[in-house]
């Protein structure tokens, strides 16, 4: 049974001496039989999981950023911990884990949310990183084999139905399982306006262990550092295992889908996800209107910018224009950097996500009627105190070559000198060392390999 921990650490044959020794991975006749045995075990252990071999063998070496890292290390005596766990338990039967394979090598693993089902199929929302090509992340490899681990631990085959590389979302289909439930993605009301007052829970599931993971947090008042301005961020700290997993409120309502970053967790909000799913059904892809603007929520801008605007228009809200691209529809309509967009087609704007949701929604109606995509915007110009309206004739562009969001890569670190380390002796000549928050990868025999790949 695997431990729900973080790092993989391997030590040489001696469990008592802490010494650093480099070994060759070659097949030289004078190679140490201990190291040769270690190499064979590591190859059988790591390569099927898509992990790199270490460049050298050193006491205390350990792997970080693997797909088995758990999250949610709250104090189990804490009242907040109990509330977070209760929220996770309520939606646990709609949370699965997925992995993609090329042959017998795993390429990616993440979490997914069952969002709907029909008479014979269920749909899972997850991250498109699951099916990105390893050599060209602007493309997907639709020939990859996808395996889905259900909440009861069983494996089933998944099939990629649709994806969008701009928003990095994908939908995977599996056969119908009556014991599973669905997350309320399509039916719940608008949530983003009141989101700032909500406590949030990020939920994930490990692929190998099947472990349910959860951690709590709140919304952050700043945009994500990733190159998609529709993303929001929360303080819920997850690992790679939680990519593609649900972010929910304490009321159990679906708030968004999580991605992974170093300091905070970006997520794609529910309102944008709904539009993408509707576009999948209507057009077979997400139709992205392009206005040629880079914007942000005015309330999230720096204080000096807000002070300048407050001098001309006190107590105003809206969308702040950070950049206007030359020759774009926005530039042609007269919009400048520093302008504030207060309305789009008569709808008051408070968040950047509302702006993107509205333009995605309008494309649904316009494309069906084969009309120009015209947007009416109300604008405040703090530089001269003017207010005016403009019409932006948006273009539909191919956004598929966007947003290669970084995923932390598994790597080996040396050595562990933490006094919290303890040692677990494995069959000679290998000693596996584990620390608090570490993870021991067991070697797979042939029968376990077949089970791992869903071949039994």
Automatic annotation (TrEMBL):
Polar residues bias spans: 1-11
Location of region: Disordered: 1-35
SUPFAM superfamilies xrefs: PDZ domain-like, Trypsin-like serine proteases
N-terminal signal peptide: none
InterPro entries noted in UniProt: PDZ (IPR001478), PDZ_sf (IPR036034), Peptidase_S1_PA (IPR009003)
Pfam families: PDZ_2 (PF13180), Trypsin_2 (PF13365)
Domain PDZ: 291-349
Protein name as it appears in the record: PDZ domain-containing protein
Organism lineage string: Eukaryota, Viridiplantae, Streptophyta, Embryophyta, Tracheophyta
């Amino acid at each position: 049974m695997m431990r729900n921990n973080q790092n993989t650490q391997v030590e040489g044959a001696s469990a008592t001496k802490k010494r650093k020794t480099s070994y060759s991975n070659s097949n030289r006749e004078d190679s140490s039989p201990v190291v040769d045995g270690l190499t064979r075990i590591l190859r059988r252990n790591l390569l099927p999981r898509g992990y790199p071999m270490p460049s050298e063998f050193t006491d205390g070496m350990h792997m970080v950023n693997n797909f088995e890292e758990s999250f949610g290390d709250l104090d189990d005596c804490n009242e907040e911990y109990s509330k977070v766990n209760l929220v996770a338990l309520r939606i646990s039967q709609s949370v699965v884990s997925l992995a993609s394979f090329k042959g017998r090598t795993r390429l990616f693993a993440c979490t997914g949310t069952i969002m709907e089902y029909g008479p014979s199929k269920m749909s899972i929302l997850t991250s498109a990183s699951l099916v990105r090509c390893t050599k060209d992340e602007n493309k997907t490899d639709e020939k990859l084999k996808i395996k889905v681990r259900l909440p009861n631990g069983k494996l089933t085959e998944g099939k990629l139905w649709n994806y969008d590389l701009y928003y990095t979302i994908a939908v995977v289909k599996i056969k119908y399982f009556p014991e599973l439930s669905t997350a309320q993605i399509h039916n719940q009301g608008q949530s983003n306006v009141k989101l700032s007052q909500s406590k949030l829970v990020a939920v994930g599931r490990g692929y190998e262990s099947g472990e349910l993971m959860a951690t709590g947090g709140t919304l952050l008042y700043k945009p994500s550092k990733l190159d998609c301005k529709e993303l929001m961020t929360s303080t819920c700290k997850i690992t790679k295992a939680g990519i593609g997993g649900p972010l929910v409120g304490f009321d159990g309502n679906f708030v968004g889908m999580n991605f992974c970053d170093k300091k905070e967790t970006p997520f794609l909000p529910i309102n944008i996800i709904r539009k993408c799913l509707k576009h999948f059904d209507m057009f077979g892809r997400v139709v992205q209107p392009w206005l040629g603007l880079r914007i942000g929520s005015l309330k999230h801008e720096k204080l000096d910018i807000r002070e300048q605007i407050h001098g001309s228009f006190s107590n105003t809200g809206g969308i702040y224009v950070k950049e206007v691209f030359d020759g774009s529809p926005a530039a042609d309509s007269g919009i400048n950097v520093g302008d504030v967009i207060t309305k789009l087609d008569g709808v008051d704007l408070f968040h950047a996500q509302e702006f993107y949701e509205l333009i995605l929604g309008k494309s649904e109606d316009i494309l069906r009627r084969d009309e120009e995509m015209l947007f009416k915007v109300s604008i405040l110009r703090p530089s001269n105190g003017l207010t005016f309206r403009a019409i932006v004739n948006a273009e539909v562009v191919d956004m598929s070559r966007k947003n290669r969001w970084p995923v932390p890569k598994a790597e080996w670190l040396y050595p562990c000198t933490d006094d919290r380390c303890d040692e677990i002796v494995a069959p000679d000549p290998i000693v596996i060392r584990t620390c608090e928050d570490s993870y021991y990868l067991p070697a797979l025999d042939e029968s376990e390999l077949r089970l791992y790949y869903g071949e039994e």
